[in-house]
Predict the structure.
Amino acid sequence: WPAYAPYIKAINDLKRQRNAVILAHNYMTPEIFHGVADIVGDSLQLAKEAATSQADVIVQCGVHFMAETSKILNPDKTILMPDMAAGCSLAQSITGADVRALRQKHPGVPIVTYVNTSADVKAECDICCTSSNAVEVVESLGAPRVLLVPDKYLAANVALRTTVEILTWEGACVVHQRFTGAEMREYRNSVPGVKIIAHPECPTDVTAEADYTGSTAGMINWLKENSPKKALLVTECSMADNVASQAPGVDFVRPCNLCPYMKMITLPKILESLVHMRAEVTVDPAIAARARTAVERMISLKS
Ligand code: 13P
Ligand code: SF4
């Protein structure tokens, strides 16, 4: 990548000078994922890494809620976001006030929030979950009924795998809600032998057609363990690009959908962020303390 090389070198030099680490989500572009990231992973892996990091500075290459989670777990560290506008349609779909109203409407029903939410929302919930532990988190509460917000599709996929009654919210991911079951069946017919690997933010008619459904890290593990000849990753486009080197021999069939928020993070913005030490992510300490309880409760579950 000749055009990227000067950026990669400058970023890696500055990281050492600043005692900084780069936490990058699996949806980052390959030059970020392979060129400058210290830790890559799904939301749960990144949250766990943030909780144990020895660095003074964390540069969060992902979306805003991920940087907030790092700040919640590290109130004394500097958390930088290369582009503050990198949001998430799920995080934008619900507010702390909405959760308070839900609690009034459903007294006594525990509330689980997907990690793809603002600190404000986490502060109002009982426990967090990610796509890799949602069923386990729901069942850990020992309640017959649980509110799982804000992703209606994650909730529907969890409901299929538990006897706990799941109530939810009207949120959806702009990337995963666009896939359809009919599209999956067309791929099955036109690409013989293809393995379909879906994210649980997809509608249930999509996951019904999948050979495996799981978090982005779960998808990578499944590919490594099963080495299919052809695979369709029903998720964000950078996944297949990044996994290609870890799963040689797999022919990745498109389609994929781009996440407009994840794609706001670029090498030049990461460099600028480290040069000027901005933009710093802050969370109101009172909100952070309450949100931390929900995140730490999740992390303390073994998985
Ligand atoms: P994962 O936790 O599976 O990486 O999902 C995060 C995300 O934003 C998926 O759209
Ligand atoms: Fe949010 Fe969907 Fe983008 Fe993930 S892929 S950050 S859930 S909009």
User: Anything to note?
Assistant: Residues 285-300 form the longest helix (16 residues). The mean pLDDT is 95. The two ends are 37 Å apart (CA to CA). The chain has 14 helices and twelve strands.
